[in-house]
Sequence to fold (302 residues):
Amino acid sequence: MAARPAKKSIRNEIAILREHLAQHELRVTSQREIILETFLKMEHVTAEQIYHELTKRTPHIGLATIYRTLNLLCECGLAQQRHFGTQTHFDNVSHKGHHDHMICTQCGTIIEFENCDIEKLQEEVARRHKFHITTHKLELYGQCSTCHGKA
Amino acid sequence: MAARPAKKSIRNEIAILREHLAQHELRVTSQREIILETFLKMEHVTAEQIYHELTKRTPHIGLATIYRTLNLLCECGLAQQRHFGTQTHFDNVSHKGHHDHMICTQCGTIIEFENCDIEKLQEEVARRHKFHITTHKLELYGQCSTCHGKA
DNA sequence: TCTGATATTGATAATGAATCTCTTTATTAT
DNA sequence: ATAATAAAGAGATTCATTATCAATATCAGA
Ligand SMILES: [Mn+2]
Ligand SMILES: [Mn+2]
Ligand SMILES: [Zn+2]
Ligand SMILES: [Zn+2]
Fold:
């Protein structure tokens, strides 16, 4: 089956994926593009959520393919893995820069934020220990504004 | 089997555990105290590591008991769960306050640190979003001083 | 356009960490 | 010491994720 034409809004991400595939002698498949398209429509999504979304479709796409493709998206920088709860969530970072998260433990709402001052302080702490930071993870857990105050 | 007398150095932790057991109508067992003793000797330990350490001993202690007891230690504030890699690590926080971690992705070394300024900035960000923080997780990944520069 | 080499898929088996079940054993209040 | 029952240990079970492998799709080259 030939890959169908991409919607205008996700052309750039499709291009990034195809570029990555070309550079690694991997093939363009309809499954990979459909999964990317679905991934871009959702926020902080799990493999299961994408699988569930795609079960409506024909032809049916297997769960293993979802996992394989999500890992592929991580490799080409479109996605990043996050471990908020028990399952692994995949975060769309294609046209968002680096950011961190606040997670409401009551309703599950995820708020994104970025704070340069915190990152500078992290670098300062690392320098003191002669540690060289490549990535970091900052997660704030608690209650969002609507849940705070409720039983 | 009666619980054997605790070494002087961990008397305080044993006392905390026994206090918690008493308050919850749980029983003092030799397994619980041996696991606590082993836990306190190691840093950022996994259930498997404790299990491996204790297989040398008689009587044999089951893996399920290790998991059950480590969860117990979390409940009475002696331990805290961390998710550095794929497995869950248990951190001794009995006579350390809250702290965060730098993890060397090359040799696995874990450096502990605390930084009030970062925590203040976290509160500030949260306030801006009307978010109420209960806990947080800050992990810096990269290379430690000995690994940095090596191939 | 057709073909062959081979990358990919999907169904399913396998894995591994963590938990649950259930019978036996240990603890503790009386 | 005894009875009530909490806990241990062995092993089954769960659940997310990865591996296996035969069938299929892709794509460079004829
Ligand atoms: Mn995000
Ligand atoms: Mn620590
Ligand atoms: Zn909420
Ligand atoms: Zn190192």
Notes: Chain A is about 40% helix and 20% strand. Chain A has a mean pLDDT of 92. The interface with chain B takes residues 83, 102, 104-105, 111, 113, 115, 117-118, 121-122, 125-126, 129-145, 148 of chain A (CB under 8 Å).
